[in-house]
Amino acid sequence: MKTTKNFQRMVAAMAFMATMNFAMAQGQQAELDDMIRPVSPGLAVDEVGHRSASPAQEITFRIVQVAQGTFGYEVARDGRTYIRQETVPGRAGVTGFATAEQAARVAELAAKKLINGIDPPTISQQELAGMGL
After folding, report:
1. What are the backbone dihedrals phi and psi of residue 115, each rounded to the nearest 5 degrees, phi first?
2. Measured between alpha carbons, how far is 25 from 22 in angstroms, rounded to an integer?
3. Rounded to an integer, what is the distance from CA 97 to the centroid of its chain?
4. Which of 106, 96, 107 is nearest to 127 (CA)?
5. Angle at which helices 2-26 and 100-115 pack, to 10 degrees?
6. Would you call 20 exposed, middle or buried from its count of C-beta atoms within 10 A (0-12, 13-18, 19+)?
7. Which sign, positive or negative, has the C-alpha torsion 76, 48, 25, 132?
8. Is 0.70 topped by the overall pTM?
């Protein structure tokens, strides 16, 4: 059973990455704009479902293409942009994430922190290292 779930997650992650690669190949931000992810504490990046942080608040994130072919993210509350992160948080310089998948992992963490009442949703170097970034 656990192996089946891991396999399903791997397939979903591969489909997500393939979709992101297609969007990059097309060079169209519109493709990335369509990938808005509702987030709740039990969801992974590759799962999409309609969830709310509270009955009155919805937290979502989306991946954005930024300077030099890198990626960032936006986190929205109730459809309004709350955070726009164009660089890797906590790192010197102005470089974004190398891949959309990296940006999505960090965006999901930031969104989950907001859902759990952590505001601002600061991302530490230890958390980045734990994600392999």
Report:
1. -60, -35
2. 5
3. 11
4. 106
5. 120
6. buried
7. positive
8. no
- For the stretch 7-62, pLDDT in tens is 555 545 444 444 444 445 445 455 555 555 555 443 333 333 334 444 457 899 99
Three-state secondary structure string covering the chain? CHHHHHHHHHHHHHHHHHHHHHHHHHCCHHHHHCCCEECCCCCCCCCCCCCCCECCECEEEEEEECHHHCEEEEEEECCEEEEEECCCCCCCCCCCECCHHHHHHHHHHHHHHHHCCCCCCCCCHHHHHHCCC
Tokens encoding 92: 């010197």
The whole-number average pLDDT for the span 92-105 is 93
The type of residue at 83 is: I
